[in-house]
Amino acid sequence: MGLLSSARAAFRRLRIRSAYNRNLFSEARVMAMNEIGDPTNHAFACDLVIRSLYNDERWEELIAFTDTYSGMDSGNYKEKAKWKLSVILGIETRVPENNVEKEWNPNDLLANWYQEDHLLWLRYPSGWIYWEMPTEFQLHTTHPNLLALALNVVLRPLGIGIPDSISEHRPFGTCGALAYSGGFDSTAAAILLPDSTILSYHRRSFPSQLNHGLADRLFGVWKNVPLARFFKFLQTTNLCAQTSENLLVFRQISHQGSI
């Protein structure tokens, strides 16, 4: 009887997969939902329901389903659906409190930077971008070259050229800094670099397809391993939204250099 049940379950999976592969996502999803209670087909059915909801662009249903079956979202489709919804519904348009009336200054590019408390703001042609900075950060003590580099990284993809003339000579700092992703390469680099190196990790606070789970697990390991060196993780947030033909483009900045 056990062998017969396994054969029947396999045949049902074949039918469901056949419908899915023919882009009959709704039909495949109905059949898959009937398999949720079958221990043999449960994981397969959940995965197919999630993928079919994603392909049908049914973002809210996908999020609700993954909340119910939280361990079945191996493809991180919930976060992808949240990102899709954020594009449809519109990203939070946070603006500075004291400088909200400031306009984009194309003549003095470095004048587009502002600081309000621990938030660093950049005025660009279509809106505002902000970073959550460490409490000791001061805009007026930041070298213009770093601000020019940030301008170039953010604005050049938007077709705004940054002239080299805004840069000036900058002496070397006293320690190095590494744009730390939490991956194998950056971890190896962190181990090989001097103990004074500052590690900077940039976290997105808005829905995106970037999964911070692996990095978070690694940070937990660092805390439990006795190290002679000090690791400083600067978690900053930035969002740049440029609307062009209904396309929302996101840019995330990371810097690597001495400070």
What does this structure look like?
There is one protein chain. This protein is an alpha+beta fold and 259 residues long. The chain is built from eight helices and eight strands, in the order αααααβββαβαβαβββ. The protein has two domains: 2-89, Serine Threonine Protein Phosphatase 5, Tetratricopeptide repeat (Alpha Horseshoe); 109-258, no CATH class. A hairpin with a 2-residue loop joins strand 2 (119-124) and strand 3 (127-132). The protein has a three-stranded antiparallel β-sheet with strand order 1-2-3, with no helix packed on it. Strands 5-4-8 form a three-stranded mixed β-sheet, with helices on one face.
**Approximately how much helix is present in the residues?**
25-40%
Sheet having the most strands: 3 strands, antiparallel
Enumerate the strands of the largest sheet in spatial order, edge to edge or round the barrel.
1-2-3
SSE string:
HHHHHEEEHEHEHEEE
Quote the beta fraction: 5-15%
What oligomeric state do these chains adopt?
single chain
Q: How many H/I helical runs?
A: 8
Q: What structural class is derived from the secondary structure elements?
A: alpha+beta
Instruction: Count the domains.
Output: 2
Distance between the termini: 70 Å
Report the uncertain regions. Answer: 227-259
Q: How does the overall form come out from the CA principal axes? A: elongated
Radius of gyration: 24 Å
| Number of DSSP strand runs | 8
Tell me, rounded to a whole number, the average pLDDT. Answer: 76
